Amino acid sequence: MKLAIIGLGSIGRRHLGNFNAVGVDTLVGYDAAPAKRTAAAAQFPFAAVVPTLAAALDGADGVVVCTPPDSHLAIARVALERGAHLMIEKPLTQSVDGVEEVLRGCDARGLRVLTAYNWRYWPPMLLVERMLEDGRIGAVRAARTEYAYHLTTRYPGKDYRQFYMADAKQGGGCLLDESHAIDYMRWLLGEISDVSAVVDRVSSLDISTDDIADLTVRFASGAIGNIHMDLFAWNVHSHFELLGEAGVIQWRRFDNEVRVFDPKAGRWEVYPFTCQLNDMYVEEARHFVACVKGEATPRCDGWDGLRTMRVIDAARRASAERRWVRV
Q1: How confident is the model at residue 85 (pLDDT cuts 50, 70, 90)?
Q2: For the chain, what percentages of helix, strand and coil (3-state, to nearest 5) are there?
């Protein structure tokens, strides 16, 4: 199997190492920046790092798109023309425009598209999914999550202003990059039907895009949710709390645990984990290989990624127009 990794920033390099670890025999890497190609070639001697996109895509069974969001669709179109399966880093793209055409083209050719929302492979999240399916806390009536970090800490020793995250034109910013939170809330609690939001730039960060996105949402189930994301929290954190008729589930990333409150017993049950951050990326890589081989269907396919994009677009409109927007 040949996989092409397009974009050799931090996530592209992570994927190169992980696909090698899960046994992909032919890995090719490409980045438009010569310095990144040189660095990747030195770091990953098992991969062929090539000077052009065409050379990377030639004969590839699958293409892993790890570039800034503004280029995702263009690369996906070329991969589609060449008959390659796709794994596209989140977010799927900058907006919903043009996405359906690409996805329909992939469907018509039997090509699988995996949207790379990596928390779908995280063992604590999978436990929560099973608990909800089993009715552990009954019907969920309300839920809230926070997903935040300080942008200056994302690129240690480097100027954050030089990276796509600081640039609206490239698809940077809080709402798009931290849309993990939208994805896992949709995955666990069902589709979001309505959105009210504030999407803005309020901190002193020198960026041209949003640094906060605070969404109040209504799920199709009737549950109410709050999804908070920002780029200026010094205490990096990710957590959620799901409030059900028969109990409460909490997930705390850095405690690496799931907690369930049992109202009958009047106590918390704690489920600790020992998984490491890269574990979920390895599972994601293994899953994409299975998708390319036809042994699995994507856990989060392109249409699923598009539904998250529709929530993102609704949040932008809700914030700009200061009203509730139907997704």
Answers
A1: very high
A2: 40, 30, 30
Q: What is the mean pLDDT of the chain?
A: 97
Three-state SS across 133-200?
HCCCCCCEEEEEEEEEEEHHHCCCCCCHHHCHHHCHHHCCCHHHHCCHHHHHHHHHHCCEEEEEEEEE
Alpha helix ranges (H) inside the chain: 10-21, 34-43, 53-57, 72-81, 99-108, 123-133, 174-177, 180-189, 277-293, 302-321
**Block residue for tokens 């083209």:** 105
Residue carrying the six token digits 């796509």: 164
- In this structure, what token pair is assigned to residue 5? 């990794």
> 0.70 exceeded by the pTM?
yes
d(CA 22, CA 32): 26
Q: Give the tens place of pLDDT for each residue, 132-175.
A: 999 999 999 999 999 999 999 988 889 999 999 999 999 999 99
Q: Please return the burial class of 66, using the count of CB atoms within 10 Å of its CB with bins 0-12, 13-18 and 19+.
A: buried
Give CA torsion, residues 38, 61, 94, 213, to 10 deg: -90
Whole-angstrom distance, CA of residue 241 vs CA of residue 142: 9
In this prediction, residue 99 has a pLDDT band, given cuts at 50, 70 and 90, of very high
Determine contact, residues 152/320, Cβ cutoff 8 Å: no
Q: How many CB atoms lie within 10 A of CB 194?
A: 17
Burial of 98 (0-12, 13-18, 19+ CB in 10 A): middle
Nearest to 87 by CA among 101, 70, 104, 106: 106
Distances (CA, A) of 4 to 53, 83, 85, 274: 9, 13, 10, 31
Euclidean distance between CA atoms 17 and 32, whole angstroms: 20
